[in-house]
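Structure (tokenized):
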């Protein structure tokens, strides 16, 4: 041990004490802010009042026959249900954009190192263009210049019912849950989680038969208990599109802008980490007869994702916070809905505090999730 250095357990104990003090301080501040202190005049009873507003899209928690469930938000619901609808709209974008931007960013990051000069130049131009223009400008471009230039619903682009594009948004086939099908879905999800956990904990060649047997049992049970879902195709009506999965114009614009913007930064991160992998790894793989694709897929990328997750978590948090820009195109996200409620009730300070707390919890969840995945990958390595 070097002179002046502290033992590892002492450093960990000090870090835990500091984290405990910080958590206690944040808890005390939260209690003070939400305790209706007369000094600030805080009052959150307005959340129980009737909202009286309508949202273009969004589901919230509602009581149906005494049981909680999801229902489309309506003006007769309370303010807290409107805020939940806005939060759920944010979460939809975050989940889809995280996956899509990671896939696109990885593809572009690998393309930046391609031996094909055209592919490399196009990838470089994409990254430089996107990273050097503001996200708000790109969001306005995608929504007003691209999506709103699509034909109206009466003249929508219909690709044999598999994809319908209009200025109202994009629709494609999807699975809809039949009546009383949620119980079967929950049970199947629990079985899949247990199987995946077992396979994760048990390495070895016997994992494939177990996985195939489990999935085969679930498929064989469908004729017995009935399918909990059914395939629904979109159909063009006079003024709208019915059936399938529909993405509104605002939601489509938000997804396009966030995915394209975040993927450009992820591509640069992936490129830098790939270059940091020792060149001997690629040379050894090529000496074993692996092609460039298999070398990247089986040798380089597995090492990349073991060290890149901490950097990616920063981009994921930024993506989650950038969803607040939906107010620029009228998307009913949490920030937009809270502003409308604050204007009606005059409770601006309380509304801002709730929005800040929601974004803080979402950010902490993303950081905690990526940290857990990173720790699991390092343990397996």
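Design, position by position:
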């Amino acid at each position: 041990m070097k002179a002046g250095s502290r033992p590892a357990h002492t450093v960990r104990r000090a870090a835990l004490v500091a984290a405990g003090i910080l958590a206690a301080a944040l808890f005390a501040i939260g209690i003070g802010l939400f305790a209706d202190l007369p000094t600030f005049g805080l009052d959150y009873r307005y959340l129980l009042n009737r909202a009286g507003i309508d949202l273009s899209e969004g589901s919230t928690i509602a009581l149906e026959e005494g049981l909680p469930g999801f229902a489309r938000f309506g003006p007769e619901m309370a303010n807290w249900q409107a805020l939940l609808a806005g939060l759920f709209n944010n979460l939809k974008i975050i989940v889809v954009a995280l996956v899509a931007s990671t896939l696109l960013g990885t593809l572009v990051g690998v393309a930046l190192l391609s031996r094909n000069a055209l592919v490399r130049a196009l990838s470089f131009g994409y990254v430089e263009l996107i990273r050097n223009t503001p996200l708000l400008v790109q969001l306005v471009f995608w929504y007003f210049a691209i999506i709103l230039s699509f034909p109206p619903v009466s003249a929508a682009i219909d690709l044999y019912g598999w994809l319908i594009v209009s200025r109202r948004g994009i629709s494609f086939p999807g699975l809809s849950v039949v009546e009383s099908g949620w119980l079967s879905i929950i049970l199947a999800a629990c079985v899949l989680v247990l199987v995946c956990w077992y396979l994760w904990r048990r390495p070895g060649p016997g994992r494939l038969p177990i996985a195939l047997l489990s999935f085969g049992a679930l498929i064989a049970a469908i004729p017995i208990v009935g399918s909990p879902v059914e395939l629904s195709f979109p159909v063009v009506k006079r003024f709208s599109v019915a059936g399938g999965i529909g993405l509104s114009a605002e939601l489509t614009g938000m997804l396009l802008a966030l995915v394209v913007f975040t993927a450009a930064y992820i591509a640069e991160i992936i490129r830098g980490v790939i270059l940091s992998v020792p060149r001997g790894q690629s040379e050894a793989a090529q000496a074993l007869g692996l092609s460039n694709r298999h070398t990247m897929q089986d040798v380089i990328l597995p090492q990349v994702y073991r060290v890149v997750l901490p950097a990616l978590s920063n981009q994921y948090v930024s993506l989650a916070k950038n969803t607040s820009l939906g107010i620029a195109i009228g998307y009913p996200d949490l920030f937009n809905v809270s502003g409308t409620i604050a204007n009606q009730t005059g409770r601006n300070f309380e509304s801002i505090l709730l929005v800040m707390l929601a974004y803080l919890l979402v950010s902490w969840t993303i950081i905690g999730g990526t940290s857990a995945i990173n720790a699991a990958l390092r343990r397996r390595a």
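Reviewer-requested clarification: The chain has eleven helices and ten strands. The beta strands are 59-64, 67-72, 157-158, 164-166, 169-172, 174-177, 229-232, 235-236, 241-242, 245-248.
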